[in-house]
Design a protein that fits this description.
With 253 residues, the protein is mainly alpha-helical. The chain has 2 domains: 38 residues; 213 residues, MetI-like fold. The protein has 10 helices and no strands.
Length: 253
């Protein structure tokens, strides 16, 4: 029953996407929306296929992928470490977490002139901002997930005389996995958005620069082609993260 439900949900999502694409196609071809504002999905698909056969796109994907991988790796490491520290030392967490959340609520992207001054039009500025926006949701969810573990699990571990290391790996981490992976997915999304957004603003390279350049030369089809490719890449990697989460949960829980 559960598998049938999942298939139904997937089919529903596909149906909604197809209806939206058909609606945009009809609106553009019927003249309801200017082609300078929105391109027909069919022409975007043709442009995307043409882009795939060019070196320009793959060079942009390569640079953005490297920047994202570095940023997400750093954000994951720092976020996990800080989350565990804030769980272990509750007083530090209670003092620091509200400040970080308040900072996170501000539009962090506005800091790009500072990092532009420090790193120039290089990947350092892109990675730095992406790390900031990706670290905090991971940190908060790791801390919240560990704090939210039910006391009965902790008592069970203590009754079995588990060492602190065993308590963490065998009890706390498996129980907190759903919350932790929610933070990881958020961190992944925000890192990707940060990389593309800063590339767009700084015109430094990667997919963000590709979309920005096509926007400035009024290449609407090319711009939407770049946006569509970013969405597809994000969806594929997010799906991969979900599969990894499911396997870990099936193994631990």
């Amino acid at each position: 029953m559960r598998s049938k439900s999942r298939v139904g949900i997937q089919l529903g999502r596909i149906g909604v996407v197809l209806l939206a694409l058909l609606g945009m196609e009809g609106a553009v071809r019927g003249g309801l929306i200017s082609r300078l504002i929105l391109s027909a999905p069919s022409t975007v698909a043709v442009k995307s296929w043409e882009d795939i056969k060019t070196g320009e796109l793959w060079q942009a994907i390569r640079l953005s992928s490297i920047e994202f991988a570095v940023a997400f790796g750093i954000a994951l490491t720092i976020g996990m470490t800080l989350g565990i520290i804030f769980y272990r030392f509750r007083a530090i967490g209670a003092a620091v977490e509200p400040l970080l959340l308040a900072f996170y609520a501000a539009p962090t992207i506005l800091l790009y002139p500072v990092f532009l001054t420090l790193f120039g039009l290089e990947s350092g500025a892109v990675i730095s901002i992406a790390v900031i926006v990706g670290t905090i949701p991971i940190m908060v969810n790791v801390s919240a997930g560990l704090v939210g573990v039910e006391r009965i699990f902790i008592k069970l571990g203590r009754s079995l005389r588990a060492t602190p290391w065993q308590m963490f790996w065998k009890v706390l981490l498996p129980a907190a996995t759903p919350t932790i992976f929610s933070g990881i997915r958020l961190g992944f999304t925000y890192c990707l958005v940060g990389v593309i957004a800063v590339e767009f603003l700084l015109f430094s390279g990667g997919l963000g620069r590709l979309v920005s350049w096509r926007y400035f030369i009024f290449d609407t089809e090319g711009m939407y082609s770049g946006i569509a490719l970013v969405i597809v890449i994000a969806a594929l990697v997010n799906s991969l993260v979900r599969r990894i989460e499911d396997r870990i949960r099936a193994r631990w829980i």
